[in-house]
Recover the amino acids of this structure.
């Protein structure tokens, strides 16, 4: 049985996994967007991490505005943000 260790970020989890001397090697769970960023920024060599499974998509980036933004501008911003991806859903908070 292995250990479950929580890291502060997906980057930290991936780098710790790659640096591990353990055999069999550990597994890291990182957000879908992290792998291209890690490879693109040169943090890891392309192909050094392999995706072995995926979960269903989960929305995780809320957008907040201050009370000073007029309601019409809030609505316009909301429409723009929702138009960035097909199937996006809104949960407008009052």
């Amino acid at each position: 049985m292995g250990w479950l260790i929580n890291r502060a970020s997906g980057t930290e989890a991936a780098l710790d996994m790659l640096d591990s001397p353990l055999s069999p090697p550990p597994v890291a769970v990182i957000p879908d967007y992290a792998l291209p960023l890690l490879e693109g920024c040169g943090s890891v060599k392309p192909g050094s991490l392999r995706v072995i499974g995926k979960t269903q998509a989960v929305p995780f980036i809320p957008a907040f505005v201050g009370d000073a933004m007029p309601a019409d501008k809030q609505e316009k911003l909301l429409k723009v943000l929702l138009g960035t991806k097909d199937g996006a859903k809104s949960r407008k908070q009052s």
